[in-house]
Amino acid sequence: MEEPTSKDDSPRVLKVLEALKQASHQLQSHPSPNSEELNSSSAIKALLELETESDAILSKDPNLSSLSQHLSELKALIENLQKSRGHHGLKSFLARRASTHSISRVAGSIESEIQAWIDRESIDTLTRVLREQHFDNEDELIKLLSQFEDRISQGFNRELQDLVLKSKLFLLLESNLCNPNCSKRIRESCGFAIGALIRFNKDVFVGQVLMGPTIGSLVTMASSASIRVLCSLIRSIKSPLVDEIESSGEIPKIISFLSHQDLEIQVLGMDCVLEIGYFGRKEAIEAMLREGLIKRLVELQRSEMGGDLIDMGRYGSGDGKENEGVGAGGLEGGNRESREKRFLESHPFASCVARFAVQLEVGEGLRQRERRAFKQEILVRVREACVSDAEAATIVAEVLWGSSP
């Protein structure tokens, strides 16, 4: 009985398999339907060379036995296609077309088998390293996590999902994310991997996020990366996640990001507030208002990083003049949007009160009567927070007209 491939052999095996995968991928798109292309096909040449080279390597791993069979089948198909060279007539033409189709099919099977092996090896390695929880090479673990995130970001794959579930990888990612003894970089990378898993298949993994300590850990970390992951999770899971944030008492901590000394944290905190405003139900919006959100937004809009989009013609005066000139192909409207985008890049808190109000107005979490009630409450709180009648008039006008770009 052959010994399975050892871990020391894995890099060599991976190198051969990556070359096989690339060649088989090319062959699927260009299966060489005629003899001239057949003789010059780099993909076929590479596969035939690698078929001979890889035989001794692949035979050591039972997981690669099917791949060896596919390679042998491919070699036979290519030989048959070569034998048909120079023959003419309908029968020969149909035979070549059938061989070409079979070559493309087998090349696809080869690529799938190789990707399955790579997935098994990478998840096994990542799981083993995460389980140890004492990392001799932090950079290597970050690389493994990044590779895993990239892989599942390519789209849903049932075999890959089965590997993730069988390995209990989500629990290991969560454990390291919540472990204060792990470095910040590792915890953040685990957070990004969890976010990618939710995008990979929300229905399967969302329950683990809602029932586990992931959200609390992301909020407590209060880093730019953890807030990005939190925003991503809110966009993916929507109202159920905002409900969990509110019920677990995380709203005050999120509002506190707006007062952070780090500008990037403030800006990301604003993004998080806007996401909650869009998906949040009545209880979450009430919790934010109780925490003095509107007063803080007024202060941010008043700051040097704030400003008013009303000065750029976003809001009208009610006489319809704000729409003049837009009919010419929408050119003026496009220029205005471009100016607003540039302005918001350098003034991220511009019109932030009205932008929050718009999120409530167009969002998914509130009933129509709740939207109207919150709009009136926001106007009251704006007047209380403003330091002058002019400031109040500007912000109230923005809220009444709507703002979000």
Automatic annotation (TrEMBL):
State the InterPro entries in the record.
ARM-like, ARM-type_fold
In terms of SUPFAM superfamilies, this protein maps to:
ARM repeat (SSF48371)
- Cite the residue spans of the region called Disordered: 312-334
Q: What is this protein called?
A: Uncharacterized protein
Q: Which organism is it from?
A: Carya illinoinensis (Pecan)
